[in-house]
Amino acid sequence: MDYLLGLISGAVGDEQLARMIFLSAIAMSAMLAVATIGLLAFGLQSPVQRRLALIKRGHGSDSNIRPVGNLQLLLERVGQRMAPEENAKSSETRMLLIHAGYRSPSAVQVYWAVRLLLPLILLALAVLALPLLPKSGMTLSLLLAAGAVGVGWLAPAIIVEKRKEARMTRLRTAFPDALDLMVVCVESGLALPQAIERVAEEMAVSHSELAEELALVNAEVRAGIPAAQALKNLADRTGLEDLRGLVSLLSQSIRFGTSVADTLRIYAEEFRDRRTQAAEERAAKIGTKLVFPLIFCLWPSFFLVAIGPALIGVLKAFGKL
């Protein structure tokens, strides 16, 4: 407390005014904290509010659903202030989370709630850590607070983006194998929806994410959605640009009655060639990436072992002179 009071007094220049500002800030913070905790506790513990929150999430009954914790409901209610429901289905944030594998109806609200609350938590921790830093002035304190807020705001976005890239890479790697299996299933006499279902069952262990996406396609087809639209939804969920061309060709094959197996075989070969080229590209970069470990780790040790004894001998010789 004395440390924060000293910072405010140094910035204002008047000790009495600094005390008034400090006490006013503490009083307002305490009132806001008590009011917020009280409202949240009442809203989460009230059966009516909890029931309304579950209905908004799409659960009409409490049977056969996973129980929702108070923390998740809290994050959803906080995130609703930043992400309106009418724009949640078509927003860029929604598509980013779907590409990263978060398909929950409340994913957008939870994402924005985390991006809002995490900077505040890190800012509070930074303020509490300021007295532990020796000789920290006003400038360093402001920089530390700004850094905490920046890290808290950017960290969730970076994590989601990395998860999206990793998931798209796994899907891109698994698609040639799935197309090969589809070719075998279609040529054996199965229709395209049945072939997709069979491939989803076979790949449930080796490529669970792609199997889940194919199972969703089959579920949409069974629900009455046209196969072309279900495949288009698959391309939108995965975010793979190469898959959009395959969806267009499959839609044309279904519409005009051409061979679906030939289309799948051609795209399977193209996907496999691209996967091989990507592996060769990564292998070609290994030599360049190894330069820096060699320079900073291996070469100093090599020079120390190779030249060290000779250098010691030279120093001994000149020392005797």
UniProtKB/TrEMBL annotation:
It is found in: Cell membrane. One of its GO terms (cellular component) is plasma membrane. Keywords: Cell membrane, Membrane, Transmembrane, Transmembrane helix. It is a multi-pass membrane protein. It comes from the Bacteria. The keyword DNA-binding does not apply. The chain crosses the membrane at residues 20-42, 112-133, 139-160, 290-315. It holds the Pfam family T2SSF. Residues 179-306 form the Type II secretion system protein GspF domain. This is Type II/IV secretion system protein TadC.
